[in-house]
């Protein structure tokens, strides 16, 4: 590990961090551990990264949210959520264990790696005789394992979201179509006398948040419509006109963790700007 150089793990981790404070902590941790002349560089790194883990878990899983989940139980000898429970909440929110098992999400090994890494960090956070590591190879290995485990924790969140989306894909597609069919589309409505929805194609979907009660979704895609100028009788007389056109759209919706296919708070926006261009 050359002083001042970025490691591949650091580059991979940085975009995943949640706030500026986390960026500063990682910068400080990496800067101190690269100082090979500092005999306690591993101890200082361990103290910083342990706080980065803790800060991340508390941001993603505050006590008041974790404790409202149906799966939460107060563990013996504790006064609130454990690290493992925070990691679980950050991954699945209030989704039930039964649903998570049904969709095939298994990220406990990633959680265990993160918790084990925190325990290892704890061993080196206090500078005492016997906890100073002079071996360069062992320092580099320790740093790699600590960063890899934190990356794995973030990956567990993404893996769970991906599996949930895969399970709900058909229901999400139907909800998008229904929203356009049942609701007036102001942006399209002003283009012609009449319009009808031919197809709504969801090209991308993402889970933006999973809370103790709700799953939030964001979609984007293309909306195919038929535009008609003039009335139906005008069209039959040859005085009207029809045209098919596609426009990009974005949509947000949400559902309860207890009724995932019952979507509400559906809000969409269709971009018709290229029509005017």
Main features:
22% strand; alpha+beta; Put_pPIWI_pnuc_2; single chain; 277 residues; disordered N terminus; 2 domains; pP_pnuc_1; elongated; four-stranded antiparallel β-sheet; plasmid
Descriptive report:
By secondary structure, this protein is an alpha+beta fold. It is built from eleven helices and four strands; from the N terminus they run αααααααααββαββα. It folds into two domains: 8-163; 168-276. Helices cover 50% and strands 22% of the residues. Strands 1-2-3-4 form a four-stranded antiparallel beta sheet. α5 runs parallel beside α8.
Helix content: 40-55%
Please tell me the overall pLDDT. Answer: 86
What is the tally of beta strands? Answer: 4
* Order of neighbouring strands in the sheet with most strands: 1-2-3-4
SSE order, as H and E? HHHHHHHHHEEHEEH
Largest sheet: 4 strands, antiparallel
Q: How many domain modules?
A: 2
Distance between the termini: 54 Å
Radius of gyration, in Å, reads 26 Å
Based on Cα principal axes, name the global outline. elongated
Uncertain ranges:
1-5
What is the helix tally?
A: 11
Structural class: alpha+beta
Range of strand content: 15-25%
Pfam family, one: pP_pnuc_1
Domain Predicted pPIWI-associating nuclease group: 158-276
Domain Predicted pPIWI-associating nuclease: 16-150
Keywords: Plasmid
Summarize the structure.
This protein has eleven helices and four strands; from the N terminus they run αααααααααββαββα. By secondary structure, it is of the alpha+beta class. The chain folds into two domains: 8-163; 168-276.
